[in-house]
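Shipment paperwork, digital attachment
Item: protein structure file
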Amino acid sequence: MTELLGIFSYAVDLRFIFLVFIGSLSGLFVGSIPGLSVSMATALLVSITYSWQTSDALATIMGVYVVGVFSGAISAILINIPGAPSSVVTTMDGFPLAKKGDAYKALIYAVAYSFVGTIFGFAALAVVAKPISAIALRFTPMDYFLLATFGLTTVGSLTTKHFAKGLISACLGLFFSMIGIDSVMGTARLTFGIYDLQAGINIVPALVGLFGFSEVLMVVSSSESKEEVNSVKYQKIPFKEIMKHFPLSLWYAAIGTVIGALPGAGGPVAAFLAYSQSKKIVKNPSVPFGEGAVEGIVASESANNACIGGAMIPMLTLAIPGDAVTAIILSVFYVHGLRPGPMFIQTSGSMFHAILAGGFIGSIFLLLLGLFVAPRISKVITVPKRILLPMVTILCIIGSFATNNRMFDVYLMFFFGVLGFFMRKRDYSVAPMTLAIVLGGMMDSNFRRAISLASSEDAFMKALIGRPITILLIIFILITLLSNSKSLKKFLLKRRMLHASNG
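Attachment content:
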């Protein structure tokens, strides 16, 4: 009852609703334009909302997140280019349906079941968050260190084709997170004599560079030609026909929520799993899968939007982001002095209610904007690069500078942008690095605290790793590493052969 009242207090706040709407509208355009991403938009928003009230910042960001994930389906359907990675699966049936002249039908199904998936995911967040927090209260400092390590190994295995590249990206992020004044010794660490680095790597310019400026460089380097946009003609689709897939969509949404709660998995994995499930479950689709089956759109969109609520679960209860966007949202909390974790709901209940309210209100705007604006947005998704890219670059510069009003942060943004560009060109995902930069400080402090507490005990190793939760987390990490050992061996063998040929 308390949670309902807390959510309702934001739901009737006109300022809060307006900010969610602004975020939703921004998410609609950003997500639907190929070359722009929800991660990039959220990273830019961190810098813009730096001085705002926390609830205002969360309202805007939740609007962008919810509608941005859906709107990737618009370009996926109309021009066969997914506006977001999670919409890749939507292209399989959405674009063939649009080529047949049924683009409006494909969009309506995407809107309806993105709405269903989002509501399901946030309902799961509301129900599951507290029990998980109660379990997490039993975690020791060593458990938190291992949990963060597990999150990094998991994201490394799921966000890149090569697990070893994911680990390298994570290790590089940990290196950057260690830069600054040592919290225990009080001495400068890894600053290389640069005074401005003593305060550490500011998360905002790092995120804006990795997700914003690197995206600009990727689009500039791409030689893709402008695609022809399929026309969207109004069709009358009976409500009963749309809703006949509702029971199955709940199963796909459940898959999306669970996958979203796994650190690093996210929308693309959930969409692929749900799509494969639909091919097994649906024996008589409207047309064969891959040729314009609405059942494929239902599965993909239900799952990838349910991931939003799922990804928030580990982020809020364990301070472990479920995907790249929640890693950025985690930085919003740190910027505003909040600390997600087991005690978050008890100590910052109003912010938890703000997230839920933002998610549910964003879902409503998703439905409204999807029904009335998305069908008319077809020409916007082909904005010329010569107009789009300078605007994004200027926003990156302003956002980085505005954080601390210093040029050094702009230089940092450019550095991380160029680094992110070269990493992505060589198939190194920037998501593990992002998580490592955000979590590195927590890992460092918790590991040191764990060693300090265990060293005062007679049985050092038992005190350090002898608890059931600790052992379980170690087993999970070992399973992840062992299951990807073949990938590691292939990567190392390839490197040796490369060095041998160069030698």
